[in-house]
């Protein structure tokens, strides 16, 4: 028989997440009174800022929505422009963009699982104490992150707010001598990821399950990252340009970020959603890692998003090895196609580290933006976080877990989503 | 955070100041640039004691000497936070273009706030104010320019601060660094560029990638923006292309305002 607990959690500006959010939980005599995920981030109004700007401003400005996934925003913005103007990128451009995208995924996932998430499982407040107690772990994390960032510098011109990525292709191509070096480092990374998996196997992942709907791009022979059809685990299937029917954004009082819904009261996007929806397209070695954590579709434990991110790290490293080889085998073609603006609407859907991201612009015939809409992964996740938090608080209130226990589990739950809060409000 | 080995400089132990990081309206990218410094991060951390870094650590303290503040001010609660940080810090550093000039956020100030709110949130109430850089509200002791800040420059500045040496920010423009790097002039390949008037120190980061400068570091000393506008027009760049560059990050707000006024009221329109 459990005790009827009283508990009050009031976390102002949750740490080790990007942006500003609060967690409020109140339990009285074992009954949940309140569980709330508040987003208090200031809006920057990117969708208004873009109005009146010429097409070439959009990727440059929109990359600045986010300091972690600036490459993803830039690529979604470029895809929206190219779709609006009826352009198809060359195969060389597509490969370079995907490689760039993969390395952002690796950089962001490693940042999250090691620097933001792992300290909870190791009983620390940050990664800093581990510099002394577990230097090899920190060195491994730094090595993986540095590799990813170095590749992003090489292809995108800069790891944060890239300089070479433009509509039509790239302003400049990487040096093949550098690409050769990356293939050696990528091979070393596969070992580092096996050690990472061994470390994460020692962590005790909370056992919390709440059934939800998962939304992602729909793979067509490949694990999808850039463009294509949209799907949900509840059987919804839409075209890229019909994205608004997947996102259904609405304004709520407890959040400066909008919320989304589809078939249920909320849905989830991100690594776990992608893995649940496209498991068969993962690289076999990534599927092996997933199997070693007993992670298979459909998994409804939000804490497993950490493991799904690790599985994706393995996938992107394997896939990048192939991409580097293909790029090295081919002669360089022209880096950039000419852009011819025309009036119309374009949508770009890209799977960024935290889930599916949409940019949509409406252009006049001189290529100036009349209307802009960006739907961010974390804003699609906020409602799901709210419902998870409620379910979690109810479950652990019933089990009689004490204050700090519930507080930590609630913090870890929100961190599992790897929220990018300033991005979600933009 | 963990105790690091104490450092010496010229045989004298170096004082490790308590450092805090804060963010107002921003993408938090400038703070991430520090974590993006994998190879030198540990050395860097041995120079200072980080006591407040919400994005990276749970522990927080109000006892700090140097505050790095990223982002611009766009709401009343940020004014309160900023003033309270100012009271606690000996040295307040405006960290990145949003903090120094308003950054891309200040592009919102081109419009009426009511329209901006409605365009994004419809008829729902949402609180927002015109975008302001830090120095419009508090005294700023030092500015680190850039969108994003350049990690090598941040490290150099922090090392000099810790050692008590003077911090020198270049007075010359990006164009100098670009020439020294042996790049093709972007004007010659038809790209607009603010390199001739923008403050150096970034090692011509964007032009090195054949992308023209957007002026994220603000004006160099004695920069002649009107002359550059004239030259760019002679080179055939459209007026709105030139304005897009000048108004992007807020550092050239005087020039941008003049250009916007000229378009509205000036001769030839």
What is the strand and helix layout of this fold?
The complex is a heterodimer of chains A (426) and B (269).
Chain A: E1 7-11, E2 21-28, E3 31-39, H1 46-49, H2 57-62, H3 70-84, H4 91-121, H5 130-133, H6 135-156, E4 165-166, E5 169-170, H7 176-201, E6 213-217, E7 230-232, E8 237-238, H8 244-247, E9 267-268, H9 271-278, H10 284-292, H11 305-329, E10 344-352, E11 355-363, E12 369-375, H12 377-399, H13 403-416, H14 421-425
Parallel strand pairs in A: 6-9
Antiparallel strand pairs in A: 1-2, 2-3, 4-5, 6-7, 7-8, 10-11, 11-12
Helix pairs in contact in A: 4-6, 4-11, 6-7, 7-11, 9-11, 10-11, 12-13
Chain B: E1 8-9, E2 12-13, E3 18-23, H1 29-35, H2 41-45, E4 49-53, E5 66-70, H3 76-88, E6 91-95, H4 97-101, H5 113-121, E7 142-144, H6 151-163, H7 174-180, H8 225-234, H9 239-247, H10 253-265
Parallel strand pairs in B: 3-4, 3-5, 5-6, 6-7
Antiparallel strand pairs in B: 1-2
Describe the protein in words:
- The complex is a heterodimer of chains A (426) and B (269).
- Chain A is of the alpha+beta class and 426 residues long.
- In chain A, 46% of the residues lie in helices and 15% in strands.
- The longest helix of chain A has 31 residues, at 91-121.
- The model of chain A has no long low-confidence stretch (mean pLDDT 96).
- In chain B, 34% of the residues lie in helices and 10% in strands.
- Chain B contains 10 helices and 7 strands.
- Chain B has helices at residues 29-35, 41-45, 76-88, 97-101, 113-121, 151-163, 174-180, 225-234, 239-247, 253-265, and strands at 8-9, 12-13, 18-23, 49-53, 66-70, 91-95, 142-144.
- The longest helix of chain B is centred in the N-terminal third of the chain and has 13 residues, at 76-88.
- Chain B starts with 7 loop residues before the first strand and ends with a helix.
- The interface between A and B is large, with 57 and 63 residues.
């Amino acid at each position: 028989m459990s005790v009827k607990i009283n508990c009050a959690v009031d976390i102002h500006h949750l740490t080790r997440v990007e942006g500003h959010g609060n967690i409020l939980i109140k339990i009285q005599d074992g009954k949940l009174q309140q569980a709330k995920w508040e987003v208090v981030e200031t809006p920057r109004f990117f969708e208004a800022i873009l109005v009146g700007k010429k097409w070439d401003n959009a990727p440059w400005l929109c990359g600045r929505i986010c300091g972690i996934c600036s490459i993803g925003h830039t690529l979604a913005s470029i895809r929206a422009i190219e779709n609006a103007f009826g352009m198809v990128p060359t195969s060389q451009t597509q490969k370079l963009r995907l490689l760039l995208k993969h390395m952002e995924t690796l950089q962001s996932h490693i940042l999250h699982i090691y620097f933001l998430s792992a300290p909870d499982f190791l009983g620390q407040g940050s990664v800093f104490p581990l510099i002394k107690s577990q230097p090899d772990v920190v060195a491994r994390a730094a090595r993986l992150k540095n590799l990813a960032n170095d590749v992003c510098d090489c292809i995108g011109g800069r790891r944060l707010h890239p300089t070479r990525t433009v509509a039509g292709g790239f302003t400049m191509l990487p040096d093949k001598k550098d690409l050769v070096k990356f293939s050696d480092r990528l091979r070393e990374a596969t070992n580092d990821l096996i050690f990472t998996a061994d470390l994460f196997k020692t962590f005790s992942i909370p056992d919390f399950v709440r059934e939800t709907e998962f939304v992602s791009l729909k793979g067509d022979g490949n694990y999808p990252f850039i463009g294509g059809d949209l799907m949900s685990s509840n059987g919804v299937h839409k075209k890229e340009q019909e994205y608004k029917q997947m996102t259904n954004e609405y304004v709520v009082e407890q959040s400066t970020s909008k919320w989304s819904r589809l078939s249920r009261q909320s849905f989830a996007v991100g690594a776990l959603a992608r893995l649940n929806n496209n498991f068969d397209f993962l690289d076999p070695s990534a599927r092996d890692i997933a199997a070693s954590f007993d992670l298979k579709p459909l998994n409804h434990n939000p804490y497993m998003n950490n493991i799904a991110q690790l599985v994706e790290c393995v996938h992107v490293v394997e896939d990048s090895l192939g991409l580097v080889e293909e790029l090295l085998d081919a002669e360089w073609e022209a880096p950039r196609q000419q852009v011819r603006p025309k009036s119309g609407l374009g949508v770009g859907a890209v799977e960024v580290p935290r889930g599916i991201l949409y940019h949509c612009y409406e252009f006049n015939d001189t290529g100036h933006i009349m209307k802009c809409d960006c739907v961010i992964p974390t804003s699609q996740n906020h409602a799901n976080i709210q419902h998870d938090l409620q379910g979690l608080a109810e479950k652990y209130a019933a089990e009689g877990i004490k204050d700090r226990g519930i507080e930590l589990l609630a913090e870890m739950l929100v961190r599992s989503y790897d929220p990018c809060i300033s991005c979600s409000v933009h | 955070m963990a105790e690091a080995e104490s450092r010496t400089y010229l045989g004298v132990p170096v004082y490790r100041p308590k450092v805090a990081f804060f963010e107002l309206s921003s993408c938090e990218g400038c703070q991430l640039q520090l974590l993006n410094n994998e190879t030198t991060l540990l050395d860097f951390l041995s120079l200072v004691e980080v006591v407040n870094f919400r994005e990276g650590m749970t522990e927080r303290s109000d006892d700090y000497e140097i505050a790095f503040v990223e982002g611009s001010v766009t709401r009343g609660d940020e004014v309160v936070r900023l003033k309270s940080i100012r009271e606690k810090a000996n040295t307040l550093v405006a960290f990145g273009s949003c903090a120094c000039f308003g950054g891309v956020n200040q592009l919102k100030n081109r419009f009426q706030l009511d329209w901006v709110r409605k365009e994004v949130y419809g008829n729902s109430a949402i609180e927002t104010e015109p975008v302001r850089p830090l120095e419009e509200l508090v005294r700023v002791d030092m500015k680190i320019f850039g969108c994003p800040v350049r990690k090598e420059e941040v490290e150099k500045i922090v090392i000099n601060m810790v050692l008590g040496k003077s911090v020198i920010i270049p007075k010359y423009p990006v164009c100098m660094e670009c020439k020294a790097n042996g790049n093709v002039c972007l004007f010659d390949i038809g790209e607009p560029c603010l390199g001739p008037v923008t403050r150096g120190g970034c090692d011509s980061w964007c032009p090195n990638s054949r992308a023209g400068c957007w002026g994220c570091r603000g004006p160099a000393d004695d920069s002649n923006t009107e002359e550059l506008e004239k030259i760019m027009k002679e080179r055939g760049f459209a007026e709105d292309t030139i304005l897009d560059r000048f108004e992007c990050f807020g550092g050239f707000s005087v020039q941008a305002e003049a250009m916007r006024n000229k378009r509205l009221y000036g001769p030839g329109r």
